[in-house]
Amino acid sequence: ATGRPATYFPCSGSVPDSQSFEKIYVFLRSFHVEIEGAVLDSRFALPEVLSLVRDRGLKYVIALPGGSPAHLQMLKEHADEIRWRSGCLLDDGTVSGTAAAIKPFSESPAESPACLFFDGEAASRESLELIRKIQSEKRRIQRAIASGEEASVPGDLRNYLSIDGEGSGRTVSLDSTALDESLSSKGFFSMAVSDGISPSDALRLCRM
């Protein structure tokens, strides 16, 4: 194997689509291309796609959306096991990971393997970006209040900042609990995997 793509298909970005996977599979098999498995991004994290992959006896690694119930469950149950835990570092040395059995989708009939990963570099970068954004916006609002101007909190920061009081007596408050909770989830990502695929295997495959 050279690692070069055998073919490619244009797909609509960020649109859930099980038919695209089926189209690619049928096309490759029509040329007698042997398919060992599928590595799919979160756009293909759909029950029907997983069923197609399993029905064809393929190994799989499927990225789970960050807001999906499966990822949130992995985060809740296993984040503390791998966050800044050197004993869980994988082969590349910067990402830690663990495996567990969960239902990949709420309608899934049974649990199956999944992996949770923590990228410390990404966690640090994303955390600092959020903190700087909040602090910058807080200073902007404070300047507006001091100048007697109207001030409001942008929609994407309303979980963290609020304006209390009226007129020149207005103040800006930071919900540190909400911020801490958000920071604690930075750097994590999850994948649904087939039996026998370890966190190291999954990470290597998704980075091919």
Describe the structure.
- With 208 residues, the chain is an alpha+beta fold.
- It has 6 helices and 7 strands.
- Strands 1-2-7-4-3 form a 5-stranded mixed β-sheet, sandwiched between helices. Strands 5-6 form a two-stranded antiparallel ribbon.
- The model has no long low-confidence stretch (mean pLDDT 92).
Characterize this entry briefly.
With 208 residues, the chain is an alpha+beta fold. It is 38% helix and 19% strand.
Q: What form results from the Cα inertia axes?
A: elongated
The portion of residues assigned to helices is: 25-40%
Distance between the termini: 12 Å
Count of individual beta strands: 7
Number of helices: 6
Radius of gyration: 22 Å
- Report the sheet with the most strands, covering strand number, pairing sense and barrel closure: 5 strands, mixed
Mean pLDDT across residues: 92
Order of helices and strands: HEHEHEEHEEHEH
Strand order of the largest sheet: 1-2-7-4-3
Give the low-pLDDT segments: none
Strand content: 15-25%
Structural class: alpha+beta
Please supply descriptive tags for the structure shown above.
alpha+beta; five-stranded mixed beta sheet; 208 residues; elongated; 19% strand; two-stranded antiparallel sheet
What's the layout of helices and strands?
Layout: H1 18-30, E1 37-40, H2 47-55, E2 59-64, H3 69-82, E3 95-102, E4 112-119, H4 120-146, E5 161-164, E6 171-174, H5 176-184, E7 188-193, H6 199-206
Parallel strand pairs: 1-2
Antiparallel strand pairs: 2-7, 3-4, 4-7, 5-6
